[in-house]
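Field: sequence (string)
Field: structure_tokens (string)

Example rows 1 and 2, in order.
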Amino acid sequence: MNQVLKFNGHNYFRQRLIMATLSGKTVKIDKIRSDETDPGLQDFETNFLRLLEKVTNGSVIEISYTGTTIVYKPGIITGGKVFHDCDTSRSIGYYLEPMVAIAPFAKTPFDLTLTGITNDNTDITVDTIRTVTLLQLKRFGIDGDIELKITKRGAPPLGGGEITFKCPTVRTLRPMQYTEEGRIKRIRGIAYSTRVSPQMANRMVESARSVLNRYIPDVYIYTDVFKGEQSGKSPGFALSLVGESTTGALISAEQVANPGETPEDIGRKTAKLLLEEISKGGCVDSVSQWLVLLMMVLGPEDVSKVRIGQLTALTIQLLRDIKDFFGVTFKIQTEQDVNQTLILTSVGIGYINYSKKTR
């Protein structure tokens, strides 16, 4: 009988289920919104459980009558061709982000199609996953054809977007030493608009450049205007920016327009968010911290090291959960530089993907 790990509350729901799947440990989560007027699992969480069930084989999910307790016994990650319709109360990023972490360890390469909202301000957008998160995997030796194709855009509240995610499988990862952050040499971005005037995207680009060109000349923001069937069911526009350093560090910021906001507001706000993220320092931005640290733990029994600017609340809890699931602790040193960055060091557990067929 496996030892059952017990947790309380609905926070960090996805990361605990993903670590349970990778470690093979049964997990029990109690008191899910037990004190709220609408107790238990929300629609988007049960929708995520359905997706997890589709990409694994042999998983057992038991949910209590009130929905406030869940027991998850993980199976093996099968991958393959999967189609899933995401709940529109959260964006596709909520569902795709955890899949990126387990996709390399599947039995067959992932070919995942998700439909729903592509960009919102609650979760990571599909643009940032494509331009930043997937590139972090390559540092751990996951090469091959990692692909994220945005076939349709879907703005909140109705969505109607569609993406296809393909990822090869690996048997083992390689260790990572990444402590040189370098200096930002160029900024790239994507300004998208659907069911609104194409001029909206150009206005976002102009206002973002007005802020960023004071610091760096090499700023290029692509405009992505969707029309007809590819434009989803709701009007909307958003901006995603990525700063690349001389050592290849990727720092991102993004913003989606809320009702009443002008393109100029979004352009300036996103540019300032990017500058704020860059000022924190580190080789990894806030949204990618959890993935890099998890991959370091799953790496070979060798030392991995990374420089991080400021730990987010999600990352702090992740470090605690990693100790519970994998028995690994990180050594954290504060550097005496301008940004007081942190160097995190750990030794991997030597995770091997036994499901992958050997040729």
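Row 2 begins here:
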Amino acid sequence: MKYYSWIFWVFCMFSVRWVHGGMNASMDPTVGALTLIHSAVARGAVCLDGSPPGYHLQRGHGQGAENWLVDLQGGAWCQNTTECVSRSTLALGSSKYMESQIFFTGILSNKSEENPDFYNWNRVRVRYCDGASFAGEGYDKDQNLYFRGQRIFSVVMEELMSKGMRSAKQALLSGCSAGGLASILHCDRFRSLFPEKIKVKCFADAGLFLDAVDIAGQHALRSYYDGVVTLQGVAKNLPKRCTSRMNAALCFFPQNLVNGIKTPIFLLNAAYDTWQIQESLAPISADPKGMWKQCKLNYTKCDTAQIKFLQGFRGQMKKIVENFYESKESNGLYINSCFTHCQSLFQDTWYGNKSPAIANKGIAKSVGNWYFERAQIKAIDCPYPCDKTCHNLVFSSLLT
């Protein structure tokens, strides 16, 4: 798995097209300005290059003025010093390169017609610049790399508490991809910030990275995670209930964590997660002859044997999430049979007339119904190709 893999997924939405949809929903998103926490530097809560962490905040209003949605940005990880040094020269490793403003869409939108349940909440995007899902603690003196994701999370939460989150009546921690994993890792910690009477829940989109066997019979993602956890000193920040039973790298996989989370949490994932297909199931290291290249670019190019392999991956995910849901009725679940990655941040997939649906129930309404306890949500789609509502991704090229 090469360094370019995570760059690819940061920018993938600019080089792909949707099938059965298209980014034709409202293109008039709201904008959130960047705030840097300069005081964090003295506490060592810094990005890979030592620059201060940051976040974007849009204030709530009306009935949502005292509610908070905190979204942790994703963007893969770095597993060795070469990757992390390269990452430190971009916005995913340094606030020096972060945009001063970003679009707030999907679950972060401030429009009721785009985000019916959370549009008037205080909505925050926490920028990701550590490369270990906000969980690292270490320093590489030779390369001058700071692995301080855990400190960043703590400092940003303190900052938000001082900005009004301390008085929250309701709160939701969310994240997509590596941010979705971060919302799982930090869920109970986020819950502990608030009094017991306050409703606090967590939401992970595309964060269910599986410890799956790749097409060569190896565990490519396990090996990658071992590099991340070892390099960045993540083990000390993982739940001891897990690390006391197994290798710390395995405790970076949600399947070994979610059943032990006390706070209600909702898992949203595509059964055929395109990031996992490309980087975990069929990475270049497992497919040196490129037999899976066309399948990875375009799901319609997958042959019968490849689809059978991907159905096995879906089956593994289905078993894991069913055990997760049964472990606590307050948890929520939405697994659709789509070829995509991250669905809560894009308007077409989050909420719209042609958004993905399982049994006529869309993603935004399902998450809202679960959060406000209007209904229990356990939605597991039928296998591909039954779902005709998917906004499947087709890639023009691979950068790995």
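free_text_note (row 2): Confidence is low (pLDDT under 50) at residues 1-18, 20-29.
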